[in-house]
Design brief:
heterodimer; A: about 210 residues; mainly alpha; MetI-like fold; 9 helices; about 0% strand; B: alpha/beta; D-Maltodextrin-Binding Protein, domain 2; eleven-stranded mixed sheet; two-stranded antiparallel ribbon; 10 helices; 13 strands
Chain lengths: ~210, ~280
Amino acid sequence: MFWQVTLKFLEGFGATCSVFAFTLIFALPLGLIISFGTMSGFKPLKAVMKTIVWIVRGVPLMLQLFIVYYGPSLLFKIPIGDKFVATIIAFSINYACYFSEIFRAGIEAIPRGQIEAGQVLGMTRFQIFTRVTLMQVVKRIVPPMGNEIITLVKDTALANTIVVAEIIYHAKTISNTIAEIWPLFYTAVFYLIFVGVLTLLFGWLEKKLSYYKV
Amino acid sequence: MKKIISVIMAVLMIATMCLSFTSCSDEKSDWEKVEENGKLVCGITIYAPMNYYDANGDLEADITGDLVGFDTELAKLVGEKLGVEVEFKVIEWGNKYIELNSGSIDCIWNGFTSNSKDDDGIERSEKVDFTYAYLDNAQCVVVKKSDLSMYTSSASLSGKKATAEAGSAGESYAKSVTSADKVSGVESQMNTFIQVKTGAVDFAVVDVLLAEEIVGKGTYSDLAIVEAIEIDKEVYSIGCRKDSDLDEKINEALIELLNEGKIEELAEKYDVHVTSSLLEKKTAK
């Protein structure tokens, strides 16, 4: 029985991992774009972006999941069809907004003097951003990003509210079938291992990025 | 650069609006849509004996295996009669009306009690179009074995804390015998048992078919069904969208299957009871 449950959980864990991975793939670049928007000197764009960030951060992720999954079909009669796609869309938008604020904090922390120095040296804005700012931003945002990414691991469990077959969904179904509660608690092991690996990875990354240290 | 971005955003917005207007124009009936797609999507939850997994063909519920169960097999038979494939989509029971109305499923087919009211006091038959009632079911009261002697009639439940699946017929019953603020709904019937076991509530109201599968075994060996309390009979039907033509199509198929004796055969296999109202329709034909 234990082995059977573990096998089923590994299957669900695959779905958990793909929700996690796809969300990161889409949310990281999207977050950077949003952060440019919220830092833009062009007022209307800045206002629009700030409003989007406010709405997305201000509404529970579970509700956003429902809006993305049921919204299009209820409003326009175009069913989104795939629950997995809906999950990735909702998660990516949500996490991009959180990431954008971390990116903004990282970018704005770079002293203005460095940018001016770059300008004096005749570098273009793109060069200044990629060669001076970004290299320092990356290492500064590792700890807060680690926080968000670990939260993301556990937030994937929300996908079971629209019945994506991730690990909690399997645990619930199995619990229902065999009339035992332990499978639900057993899922914690999978999350702990996943987060443990990520924690080690971020520790290593932080060390690796500790250049420029005096 | 910034202006380009804002122009792109404006274009995107207009594009999505256009898309939404064009898609509103084609209105087909439910049956036409099902026929065109070649498949009937049934919203289910996993529970025995209606829709569950069986790995070795012994009809006992397993963790993996093929989807079996009375409703699973009946839906497949109806699909054959209608000439469409049947797709089973697991849903969250509390979202069943949203799933149905948003079109992500074509019907709710999972031991769906049709002669009952929802939490809001509105008859379910006003929210969905039901087919003929095909199975009999009843709710039962589950308590701790050690408390069994305390419960002799429905009056003895008054003032006690209760749980039932949110939006279920059992929840309505629980609210009627004890007060509404004493009843805490949970998302699936299965989650009610742990509440009784841990003492979070005094009793749970669940389907008798399910309770017989669970109570008194494994983790729940210290629970018992209160045989002394009988709750009104209920019947199961298949729920289709309001003003749909799909329920009539399913009804036609059900009658054909009934005349071939296939529904009674299935009922015997899964040890459930076909409603007398459906059986009467057989003699009429």
